[in-house]
Amino acid sequence: MHDFVYHRASSLDEARRLGAEEAAAFLAGGQTLLRDLKHHRRTPTSLVKISGVLPREIDLRDGGIRIGAGATHAEVAISEVVRERLPALAGLAGHIGDPAVRHRATLGGAVVAHEIAGDYPPACLALGATVHTTGRDVAAAEFFAGPGRTALEPGEIVTAVTFPVPAKAAYVKFLNPAARYAMAGVFVALAADGRPRLAVTAARADGAFRWREAEAALAAALVGDALREVRMPLDGLAEDLFADAAYRGRLAEVLARRAVSLANGAAPGVAVFSHGSPLRIGVER
Amino acid sequence: MPDVSMTVNGRAVRGTAEGRTLLVEYLREHLHLTGTHVGCDTTQCGACVVHVDGLAVKSCTMLVLECEGSAVTTIEGLAPHGGSLHPMQAAFREHHALQCGYCTSGMVMMAVDIARRLDEPDEATIREELKGNICRCTGYHNIVTAIVAGAKAMAAERE
């Protein structure tokens, strides 16, 4: 890893000033950034440590759950308010990476990293989340701009994300049994106004996306059978050593039906599958 | 070079480190605490798991400068030097939860973290919790058995 100057910001204002410099990078939990530095995918000349100055409170306000960007995945997973009001999101956070990663990785870091197999991006899209930054509020749909890219300007910092509380929601992902990375994941939500949204992750090479054909099919009723004839377009699907486009497309179709069933179930939450067997269904402890 | 001060295994440590120095590098190469291992250096294998402020973390994916003011515990600090083993270490020995031993320090540190968070989890939960700790020898059976026993012993000790 190349060397860099390390700053520990003592306030958000100081962080913005230091981070606006050319070739500076913000460091929150570091679970994506340090990997990228080791692989020389990014070569910042300075790192600005911001986890000490990021908000990490989790509050219910105006029909939404506002989560501070510094909240770790472990904190979101065990948050009483998230578990009660949006169990699918608590379960999602509780199944990112592994327990040690979840102790470090933050919500802010996850949305900014915008990994193509990320778990938070489809939740943001399907729930119609708002990303709060040091300068503005951005709708999730406008925030994500291609894999690894967001609408953030230099020096701009994500401070929180607000997730509107839906009537129903569920998240289902299928892990490669060896790499334990999602080969496809589907987050489905029925908004409080009755509108269904369905977002897919890890399937397309350009990141999470809303699957409009599926949403249209679910408009009349949120039932899995409504998706029986809906086919995932293969154009643009990711292909790698784990799966080709046809396999991924079919996987997304099956996971979408399972997500809808789970959202309608008694304990909506999260299901993680690998080779067809449920590792865990329901809400993380 | 920037200064860093923290507590490692109950002992105050003060030194300097480059920005890029990983926690595991500092532990092994500066403090000579070589019980913490580097298996993959890519956050996957868990051989480098230590506790920072009471939580299991992968020390290959944390800068030592991020530990400023923190309390770090490594496998060397789990039981007092020359004293009896930590209940989880004793369980790993009792159930022969290792073969080559390379993953063991990370496994034990993760196991202690699991037992602290989940009290006495069942085998399926333990297997899921070990997602980020890879053993290439044993097939996990004895490791899971040891963690069940170690968690039980830790719970008994708390009572």
Describe the structure.
The complex is a heterodimer of chains A (285) and B (159). Chain A is 30% helix and 25% strand. Chain A has helices at 12-19, 33-38, 73-78, 80-85, 87-93, 99-104, 107-113, 120-127, 140-143, 212-218, 245-264; strands at 5-8, 24-27, 46-49, 58-61, 64-68, 130-133, 137-139, 158-164, 168-175, 182-190, 196-201, 209-210, 270-274, 277-282. In chain A, a hairpin with a 6-residue loop joins strand 9 and strand 10 (182-190). The radius of gyration of chain A is 18 Å and the shape is globular. The model of chain A has no long low-confidence stretch (mean pLDDT 93). In chain B, 35% of the residues lie in helices and 14% in strands. Chain B has helices spanning 23-30, 87-94, 104-118, 123-129, 141-158; strands at residues 3-8, 11-16, 49-52, 55-58, 71-73. In chain B, helix 2 runs antiparallel to helix 5 (141-158) and helix 3 packs across helix 5. The mean pLDDT of chain B is 96.
Give a concise summary.
By secondary structure, chain A is α+β, with helices and mostly antiparallel strands.
- Which regions of chain A are unreliable across 5 or more consecutive residues at pLDDT < 50? none
- CATH topology-level name of the domain at 168-282 in chain A: Enolase-like, domain 1
Strands of chain A, total number = 14
Radius of gyration of chain B: 15 Å
User: Beta-sheet strand percentage of chain B?
Assistant: 5-15%
Largest sheet of chain A: 6 strands, mixed
Would you spell out the secondary-structure blueprint of this structure?
The complex is a heterodimer of chains A (285) and B (159).
Chain A: E1 5-8, H1 12-19, E2 24-27, H2 33-38, E3 46-49, E4 58-61, E5 64-68, H3 73-78, H4 80-85, H5 87-93, H6 99-104, H7 107-113, H8 120-127, E6 130-133, E7 137-139, H9 140-143, E8 158-164, E9 168-175, E10 182-190, E11 196-201, E12 209-210, H10 212-218, H11 245-264, E13 270-274, E14 277-282
Parallel strand pairs in A: 1-3, 2-3, 9-13
Antiparallel strand pairs in A: 4-5, 5-8, 6-7, 6-8, 9-10, 10-11, 11-12, 13-14
Chain B: E1 3-8, E2 11-16, H1 23-30, E3 49-52, E4 55-58, E5 71-73, H2 87-94, H3 104-118, H4 123-129, H5 141-158
Parallel strand pairs in B: 1-5
Antiparallel strand pairs in B: 1-2, 3-4, 3-5
Helix pairs in contact in B: 2-5, 3-5
